[in-house]
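Give me a protein, keeping tokens residue-aligned:
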Amino acid sequence: MLPVTEAGSLNQSSQDCEAPFADGRLPLMIVYISVLIIGLPANLLTVFLTWLQVRRKNVLGVYLWSLSLCDLTYLCTLPLWTDYIYRGHLWQWSSAACKLTGYIFFTNMYVSIFLLCCISLDRYMAVAYCLEARGMRRQRYAVLTTVTIVVMVAVVHTAVFTMREGAVT
């Protein structure tokens, strides 16, 4: 805890400065639980419906299906994050579980960003260059692009597993 000095005074006060974790704990837990309750069935439905599009050789379906799987993976970590918040930002699980949860969080964040970029680019190509893009917009390319994104991001984030605990550098 850090000592706080009063404004306009040179004297040290005995007041302690604490991060207000308790103030935002309940609303954050409510958000996490709500996202899990709504997100799990919604993403399961989306995975099913987008899989039907993938089977019909729809390029956009590949990106949307991958994005839904990415979201589902993140949703599976929300109970651990909720428990972490509930315990006042104290991790009660193993170090490996902490690293895996962090790995999933950051990997999914970046994979989702790249997939959204792919969706935007695909939509742009389909609208602005509909005739020229017909040959380039193939499901095989979408799958290859998605796999490349996932592998590259996953490899880059493996550094999480080799970091020392408590290392800030």
Notes: DSSP finds five helices and two strands in the chain. The radius of gyration is 22 Å.
